[in-house]
UniProtKB/TrEMBL annotation:
CDD domains in UniProt: Bbox1
PANTHER family in UniProt: CXC1-LIKE CYSTEINE CLUSTER ASSOCIATED WITH KDZ TRANSPOSASES DOMAIN-CONTAINING PROTEIN, CXC2 DOMAIN-CONTAINING PROTEIN
Occurrences of domain CxC2-like cysteine cluster KDZ transposase-associated (ranges): 106-211
Source species of the chain: Piloderma croceum (strain F 1598)
Record protein name field: CxC2-like cysteine cluster KDZ transposase-associated domain-containing protein
InterPro entries in UniProt: CxC2_KDZ-assoc, KDZ
Lineage: Eukaryota, Fungi, Dikarya, Basidiomycota, Agaricomycotina
């Protein structure tokens, strides 16, 4: 390895970033040079080759000062150090003592500075404040600072602001924070959620990590400066400094970061969009998703009179009207009419609101792009009952954000939308008049469940509120709040300790940053989504065409009519719903009993008063009791009392098996020699020798005719029953997991333990259902290994099929690529129902789902193209908006007007460049696929004349 090879040890750009082996390789390559590296670090502890040399600047006297922050290791004298740092007051010095380098400061060697006089030297500086404290990214500095006291000099706070220092107070500041330290903390906390406490004291340790120097604590002032800085940046970036009427005239939501991909009339929608035909109008729907988060709570800290600096100006609703509305209507409740298993959460783990001002926050986001809506957040009041009961909070949050919205079509996604949508019109009329939307938009609104919350609901909800089946919903999934909550939850560790206003300001700041990062990433994310949509549309379109070709045209026409009728009115028969989802043991037992009664009427008597079907049913019940008893015995740490109870259960089971054996000897006489009597000690392990347990040869001769066939029918019903129960238990477990993540976390050990116990209980129920299905499957495999049931039922893989119907592990595939286990897709048992009608129903359902999959992906392509168009149109509108803002401040002095105009021009150029950059990224792929997006010609890489979108005759339109 040559001398320079170590310079490239850490690049390794060609190696896989995901391979643990390759990630460790650069460190292994460095190890041979470890000794040299440590030696070079030690070398820097002495003057090195500059020992006993003259000052490198004046070359008159020996140098003993080295600057940590200047480039190079040269030494200079103290006078030259002061001169060279006249404009670098925050550089850190080292002074050579003859034995080692000691920490030093510019103030120790005579440095002082005068601020506030912009041209030339100040003739009337104030007396210096010798201990003026400045907090900078480089550390905490104490400097002698004088202000300009010339006639006409601005106030000292203004002098500080003009040199880029935020004064710690407004009257007679003796401390300040550089814009750089505020900017640095701002970016770090937005990216890494670092608290102000950790950041400030890291700076203190950077200044002195020994505790020998006594630095002044400016942490409290730092908190105030950070809050002001965030607010000022929000006002500046939203153009509020350009308004001649002043910042106080800011409107609700005016400082929010809007989603440019969502529809905004007058900004990014085409002329005449209101009158577009139905086949196009859906592209202009506003799709919203709603959720609540109980991690963003606020503790009662005794802080009073702490309003937000801009209440309702950005992403929080206005506090006063919100609190007044919730106080008036928050007590109203509605009954839970949903089949959802969320009831288990409601009764299983109510949270205590003791010591809280707010129990969390409700949110409204755009469901396509995960941006928080303007005025899309609101506090949840102390003591709110959390499930299915109160909608006042969410109603206000949703409709406050819709003030002034002229959208004709709305889509609402909410994990309890089946409940929330009921009586929504009545509740909307209780809202302030300015918040009510038109009757027609609400009547036309669509209500859906998020895709991975939907399995927490019953079958009716799954069918009627599914985004998979809703026409013109594209591939929207509605799970955006989950991503946003996961991002903001770490901030709650700090915000829950703040005052109400500081909490709002802080979360507002994080929302704006989150929204902006989403916008900046649209260039890559929308292209990636379009590539995926084109690929999946081609795949599912072909699959549907092949499947569709297997049916007669009149059958397809009938099914298409049914789908179209349901699309127009969901009260019509649902093409995706089975009239009978499956059979149960009770169904089969009833039918067998009727058959046996008919046999008796015909004079066919049974050998025992207990019929064959009842005998088999009792055998299955005993088998279930054996499984339960084995499971109870397998539990560890059984007490003496529990052991006594188990023995009593064993004795009872032993007696029941003995009684059942007497009947078995009649219907299965050969088992008298092949079965041993159960022992009272272990009746749970005794083989019952049902027909499915016997060898086939013995089954043919040793069982009453028809007995095996009856067991097949009962086992099929047992399998269906077990699957239904298993799915229900998994839905409950998924709901509990969601509830735990959102509401409990590490906030309470007692509630956490209670929730873990509850989850364990339902986990055990899931496994009991799985074992019951395994028994049915094993019996069917023995009795009828090649039967029609094999087309419907599969062997259960406990490691895969018992996963929750939602993401429960980080390593699972992403939502777009995740596949459900077969247990969620198993069709009904059509072999049990004779006739073509049942067969046709199953085929219709599969046909309708295949058609829906292809259509949703096709709609996704259309909607992504429209979103790409809207993003560029919004950027173009925003650039022009900034150009208009430039000359607005005619009321201020010339320098402020010039600054406002320069900033407006800068922002206009930024949006123009973003538009051009995005189109350059999207254009090659869009044109290669024959897709057309009507972007303005000025942004196209090559200007071409193209026809309007509705005239394009391509497959994806």
């Amino acid at each position: 390895m040559n001398q320079r090879s170590h310079l490239y040890v850490f690049s390794s750009v060609s190696l896989s970033r995901y391979s643990p082996y390759f990630q460790a390789r650069p460190v292994q390559d460095w190890l041979p040079y470890r000794q040299k590296y440590i030696e070079e670090l030690l070398r820097r502890e002495s003057p090195g080759s500059y020992a006993e040399s003259l000052c490198f600047n004046c070359e008159l006297v020996p140098g003993d000062i080295r600057c940590r922050d200047c480039f190079g290791e040269q030494l200079c004298c103290r006078d030259c150090a002061v001169e060279l740092h006249s404009k670098l007051p925050f550089h850190r010095l080292l002074r050579w003592t003859g034995s080692f380098f000691a920490d030093s400061t510019l103030s120790e060697i005579g440095f002082s500075m005068v601020i506030g006089h912009e041209h030339g030297s100040c003739k009337s500086p104030s007396a210096p404040i010798k201990d003026f404290t400045v907090v900078d990214s480089s550390g905490i500095h104490v400097l002698p600072v004088s202000f300009c006291d010339c006639v006409g000099a601005p106030h000292r706070r203004i002098q500080l602001l003009r040199v880029g220092w935020m004064p710690a107070s407004v009257d007679r500041p003796r401390s300040a924070f550089t814009f750089d330290v505020l900017d640095t903390f701002h970016l770090i906390t937005l990216q890494g959620k670092l608290s102000a406490f950790d950041f400030y004291y890291a700076l203190e340790h950077k200044t002195d990590n020994t505790g020998l120097q006594k630095t002044k604590d400016r942490y409290d002032q730092f908190l105030t400066a950070v809050r002001i800085w965030r607010h000022l940046k929000m006002l500046k970036r939203s153009g509020r400094g350009h308004d001649p009427e002043g910042v106080a005239s800011t409107l609700f939501g005016e400082c929010a970061v809007e989603c440019p991909a969502c529809p905004h009339p007058g900004k990014n929608l085409p002329n005449g969009w209101e009158d577009a035909p139905e086949s196009v109008r859906w592209l202009y729907a506003l799709i919203l998703t709603i959720d609540a988060n109980f991690r963003l709570k606020l503790k009662q800290k005794g802080i009073i009179d702490d309003p937000a600096l801009g209440d309702g100006w950005a992403h929080w609703v206005a506090s006063k009207p919100y609190q007044a509305y919730v106080k008036k209507y928050g007590h109203l409740v509605e009954p839970n009419l949903c089949q959802s298993d969320l009831k288990a959460v409601d009764h299983g783990s109510q949270k205590s609101a003791n010591g809280l001002i707010n129990s969390g926050a409700g949110g409204c986001l755009c469901a396509r792009h995960t941006l928080v809506r303007p005025n899309g957040l609101g506090d949840l009041q102390k003591g709110e009952r959390q499930v299915f009961l109160i909608y006042a909070n969410m109603d206000f949050i949703v409709f406050f954000g819709l003030i002034g919205t002229a959208m004709r079509l709305l889509v609402f996604s909410y994990d309890i939308v089946c409940q929330w949508s009921r009586n929504l019109k009545t509740r909307m009329n209780q809202l302030p008049e300015c918040m009510r939307i038109g009757v027609q938009p609400l009547a036309n609104a669509k209500f859906v469940l998020p895709k991975f919350h939907i399995y927490n609901h019953g079958i009716k909800c799954q069918l009627n509120y599914s985004l998979n089946f809703l026409k013109w919903s594209a591939r929207t999934n509605g799970e955006d709040p989950e991503r946003w909550w996961a991002h903001i939850n770490p901030v709650s560790m700090s915000t829950r300790e703040m005052g109400p206003g500081a909490r709002h300001d802080t979360i507002d700041d994080h929302v704006r940053a989150w929204n902006w990062r989403k916008i900046v990433n649209f260039g890559a994310s929308l292209l990636s989504q379009l590539r995926k949509a084109v690929e999946m549309y081609d795949k599912h379109k072909k699959a549907f065409e092949d499947f569709n070709a297997t049916f007669e045209p009149d059958v397809v026409a009938r099914w298409e009519q049914m789908v179209a009728a349901w699309d127009a009115d969901i009260t019509q028969p649902n093409p995706y719903e089975e009239s009978n989802a499956g059979i149960t043991i009770a169904d089969v037992q009833l039918e067998l009993a009727r058959e046996e009664a008919l046999d008796a009427e015909r004079g066919n008597e049974y050998a025992h008063e207990v019929t064959m079907s009842r005998f088999l049913s009792q055998g299955l019940e005993l088998e279930e009791q054996q499984r339960i008893l084995r499971w109870q015995i397998e539990k560890q740490h059984i007490t003496t009392h529990q052991a006594a109870e188990l023995q009593e259960k064993r004795n009872t089971l032993h007696r029941r098996i003995e009684a059942w054996r007497e009947i078995q000897n009649i219907y299965m006489p050969d088992t008298q020699t092949d079965s041993s009597s159960p022992t009272p000690n272990q009746p749970e392990n005794t083989c019952l020798w049902l027909p499915s347990s016997m060898p086939q040869s013995l089954r043919l001769t040793g069982c009453t005719v028809g007995l095996a066939e009856k067991e097949i029918r009962l086992r099929l019903a047992q399998a269906d029953d077990a699957l239904n129960d298993l799915r229900r238990q998994l839905r409950i477990s998924a709901t509990l997991l969601d509830f735990k993540k959102t509401n409990i976390g590490g906030t309470s050990q007692r509630r956490g333990m209670r929730m873990r116990n509850l989850m364990t209980r339902f986990h055990e129920k899931s496994h009991r259902g799985a074992r019951r299905y395994d028994a049915a499957f094993q019996a069917l495999s023995a009795l009828d290994p090649n039967g029609a049931w094999t087309n419907r039922l599969k062997r259960l893989d406990h490691s895969k099929d018992l996963r929750l119907p939602r993401h429960d592990r980080d390593e699972e595939p992403s939502e777009g690529r995740r596949e459900l286990s077969w247990i969620w897709l198993v069709p009904r048992d059509d072999s049990y129902h004779d006739g073509a009608e049942e067969y046709t129903e199953s085929m219709r359902i599969e046909w309708a789902k295949s058609k829906a999959r292809a259509e949703r992906w096709g709609e996704e392509i259309k909607l992504l193209r429209e979103e790409m168009r809207r993003v560029i149109e919004y950027f173009s509108w925003k650039a022009q908006w900034w150009r208009v803002q430039g000359p607005h401040r005619t009321d201020a002095d010339g320098y402020i007007c010039n600054g406002a105009a320069a900033y407006a021009a800068k922002q206009a150029a930024m949006f123009k460049n973003m538009a051009k950059s995005f189109v350059e990224v999207w254009y090659p792929y869009v044109t290669s696929k024959g897709l057309f997006v009507p972007w303005p010609d000025k942004y196209l890489p090559t200007v071409q004349r193209v026809s309007p979108m509705l005239d394009m005759d391509v497959d994806y339109v």
